[in-house]
Amino acid sequence: xxxxxxxxxxxxxxxxxxxxxxxxxxxxxxxxxxxxxxxxxxxxxxxxxxxxxxxxxxxxxxxxxxxxxxxxxxxxxxxxxxxxxxxxxxxxxxxxxxxxxxxxxxxxxxxxxxxxxxxxxxxxxxxxxxxxxxxxxxxxxxxxxxxxxxxxxxxxxxxxxxxxxxxxxxxxxxxxxxxxxxxxxxxxxxxxxxxxxxxxxxxxxxxxxxxxxxxxxxxxxxxxxxxxxxxxxxxxxxxxxxxxxxxxxxxxxxxxxxxxxxxxxxxxxxxxxxxxxxxxxxxxxxxxxxxxxxxxxxxxxxxxxxxxxxxxxxxxxxxxxxxxxxxxxxxxxxxxxxxxxxxxxxxxxxxxxxxxxxxxxxxxxxxxxxxxxxxxxxxxxxxxxxxxxxxxxxxxxxxxxxxxxxxxxxxxxxxxxxxxxxxxxxxxxxxxxxxxx
Length: 437
Known about the structure:
Blueprint: H1 11-22, H2 24-30, H3 38-48, H4 50-68, E1 76-82, E2 94-103, H5 108-175, H6 180-215, H7 236-244, H8 250-271, E3 277-284, E4 294-300, H9 306-375, H10 381-415, H11 421-431
């Protein structure tokens, strides 16, 4: 079963990233206008976000280093001359030419290649983790911005309702059937809403700025309204499946790559206990006997400092133990983060349904009844004031519940190590033998 947690390891995204880095103009063109859906914006962020492109460049650099690893060192060539022999009729020109090739202990070059593979795996895992975090942060920012937009719409609706009531109170005050305190209280309530609207508008500007930064969009780019984007339901089977593959998450893969790197470093240190070889050939024209001028030989180093190597090995084993404990701690944290995120997500969904189906209709009905009673003189201003405030509070609480459901989904998806909604939907498909690209 292929890992589901990220698109970082899929060939299509690696190819796209390589094309974008080769042709920066393409990335700029893709970042000029925002997508129109949440998933489209997440996909756009993976293409346009500068930090994500930096991770992809580091991954490409690690791959180049891997291709350059596991090779023999360059041969050494040295040339020496005897200056006093030049121009001397009694002696031939004297020179020495030596060529040598270092040869490491067998298996060392293979370990170098494996270490390079570990580094590539580590940066791939960190790239995937950054994708998960980038998607989470973008979803949270979009939810926060649309929450404030929804609150601003609620604010303006309530301002309109207060304005209608103020006009009624002005007519009654002019006719002597209403006191001035009721009119002033109504105007005060509307002014409070006006002040809140100013704060919401300013916060919306800051939210939009943060989103444009994540998407690398031009300044003042208009962003789409995503408040009506649906949130998929996450089944218990999908959650259970994600809990069963926690070790496939990017953070765990990064630790696994580091553990593998420490193991290969330990094996390489052990290789250093044995000597390295150097093949050598030399031609020395200073020898009088021509048969002695050409020499071939083998050189070795003498690894005498075994105590230092033993300490290095002990340090690497301690690093491995620390990484093992860190991986266990991270698995526990991921397990509980996933469970807690699922709890918050479900709680917000239940609250949202309660407000939409019961509390908000009751608040509207109560306000309508209070207005009718106020117009007929059966109720005083205090009753309609209470009903109006109750409607505003209920509307804002409903908007907050929807915001919490969206942020809960963002947290839940990140806790599962996923990037796209389709990653959730493909979970059961992969369990049934499907292929996830």
